[in-house]
Write a structure and sequence with these properties.
The complex is a heterodimer of chains A (244) and B (372). Chain A is globular, with a radius of gyration of 18 Å. Chain A starts with a strand and ends with a helix. Chain A is of the alpha/beta class and 244 residues long. In chain A, helix 3 crosses helix 4 and helix 5 (140-151) packs parallel to helix 6. Chain A has helices at residues 45-52, 74-79, 96-106, 111-124, 140-151, 170-185, 197-200, 220-227, 232-241; strands at residues 5-16, 19-30, 34-39, 60-65, 68-69, 81-84, 158-162, 189-193, 205-210, 213-218. Chain B contains 15 helices and 4 strands. Helix content of chain B is 68%, strand content 6%. Classes of the chains: A alpha/beta (244), B mainly alpha (372). The A-B interface holds A 53-55, 57, 75, 78-79, 81, 83, 85, 87-94, 98, 101-103, 105-108, 110 and B 1, 3, 5-7, 9-10, 13-14, 17-18, 206-208, 210-211, 213-217, 372.
Chain lengths: 244, 372
Amino acid sequence: MTPTATIVADRLTRRFGSFTAVNAISFEVRRGEIFGFLGANGAGKTTAIKMMSGLLMPTEGTAMVGGFDVSTEAEQVKRSIGYMSQRFSLYADLTVRENIRFYGGIYGLKKAVLNERAEHLIRDLGLDAEADRLVGELPLGMKQKLAFSTALVHDPAVVFLDEPTSGVDPITRRQFWEMITAAADRGTTILITTHYLDEAEYCHRISVMVDGTMAAYDTPSAVKSTLGVHTMDEVFLKLTRTSP
Amino acid sequence: MSALPHLLKKEFRQIFRNKAMLPIIFVLPIVQLLILVNAADFEIRNINLIVEDLDHSRTSRELYGQFEASPYFRVVGAPATTREGLDRLDHDKATVFLRIPAHFERTLLATGTGSLALDINGIDGQAAGLSSFYITRIVADLNRNIVVRERKGALQTAGRVQVKERYWYNPDLEYKNTMLPGLMVLLVTMVGLFLTSMNVVREMEIGTIEQINVTPIRKWEFIVGKLFPFWVIGLFELALGLTIGVLVYRIPVQGNVGLLFAFAGIYLTVILGMGLLVSTRTQTQQQAMFVSWFFMVIFLLMSGLFTPIENMPTWAQNITLFNPIAYFIDVIRLVLLKGSTFSDVSRHFGIILLFAIAVNVLAVLSYRKRAA
């Protein structure tokens, strides 16, 4: 294990009956790294993320997240991660401020810290005028940016982002990636799944999952040169085509 | 630091912001208590009666007069022929058709017996039964009068048995006094069961449950956070119902209200646990609603609110032993109308406590399974 690794997966496996969704994947993600999880639908990305975030027990293998074992120390793992799923995760019937305070509060942030972070976050997102509006009234892009910020409100070591940018316009997507990069620069480890292959280029390293296994695992440029192709599209097609 | 205060704050906010829930909490109880109590009155008055008198005797006129004087009947006509009388019954112009045959009085005096013909619209079985009962009473009165009249003197005072009823705990047999407590139970149950099951399922439906599951919130904190607001609202409904009952209907409060709330507190945990159980078996609010309704209807019809449990067949009575609503209706009537104390209803307390434990253990177990 590298001293700076915040995620270490070792032959992580999950089976549902006779179906193996994730088949003995091993990888490491360093502190402050943006790690891209690519793969077709049903390749096992979401299952892998669910195991690493303590939502699903691994059938075999281990994963250490923020120094805690996901199988035996799920509670500590949950304390040290942030999570943003592909489904909208904020409460539409609570205001912007209430949502931030709720999610900060359940992680046990002290009131003073919570207030300060909430106000800071609202300012950073430029939501001062909307702070007391219901989240349901915000445009989708803004909701996703808010959801990301909220996932970071308790200052987690690792953030899992499960297709955070699907359905978002290109400008918001760009802003979203700026936020991700800024968070990584502050030392937060990011593990992100995406369908947009151009987004893979923003990742420090990527893995491509095919049928529950990792078909590639390196920097975007190294993956491309290994396969002798020039674009991520070609990487994706080449790797996923080999499977029946 | 526990996450519970934050969860409770969030739940209360969401409940009071939900435009569908507020009317259910505040308007439904008032409407139910103000309208249903008056409507769900089993007493039948002003039954439309038609009388065909073919006898035209003193006795037949006396009988006619007694029907006219009775608050239960309203004599709405005297058909000229039997055919016309039956026609009116057919066209819902009358509910009861009484025929006094010719020579009724003469036969009665000669043989000591006489017969009357009675046709009752039986579509509403309960009303028909009650009409027949009232008529029998009036005819019994008539019989007595005839006996007295014909055997003047000695027999008049000798050994005449008369039943004089006295109804305990509800001296005037006021239907409101028995209906209202039952309706309060219904209210508390509906609010508890429907709103809880829908509220938990809602979180699954909108997908935020997944977000909650990745936080360090413990299962019990989430469950308590979801159920506690409706526990409070359930007790509030009971208080509201009692207030309306006392102020509007002047129902008696013979027993200790604290005892009633103590029972309601335990009872609500049973109902909320059932709501949670329903929510673990359903995926959408609609499904939760239908399943809750299914149980609600069974519980309600077998609760003793509309049909006395004693009148049910044995197998049905055995089912009511597992009906929490039946126990609460019993307790609320006993405490309000009879002034029963804890020792009188301790058996009810014990049983409902067992229900509470069983239902909630089951609910928490199946909730865990789902999330695992």
